[in-house]
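SAMPLE LOG
Freezer: B-3
Tube label: C17
Construct: single chain, 119 aa
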Amino acid sequence: MTILAVEDAELREELLRAMLSMLGEPLAKIVKEMLMKPLVLPDVPIYNEIVTALEARGEVREKVRGKVERVLRLLATRGVAADEAARTRITECRDVARLDRWCDRAVTATSVAAVLADN
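STRUCTURE (predicted):
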């Protein structure tokens, strides 16, 4: 979510003021100008393809993040200890299918090794 997407006008203005107050005067001026003139991409197929690809990439990133959180939450809820190496392996995984397998295994596994097994 961006500041500009905040629906409450007063909150949005306060957030913008807070953000701008942290910038030096020259940079704050540039940001204010940018906010007054939002970027509008031309209606050209290549721009549309780029926007679509970036949106899809963001959706995949959110999906991965959710699955990582789900694996960790299942392990914690079931009392299955995950050491730092296991937590790192889980949080750095970007393979959706693997994360799905880990989620399935975490439901019944009694050890983190059983969840992360490569079989």
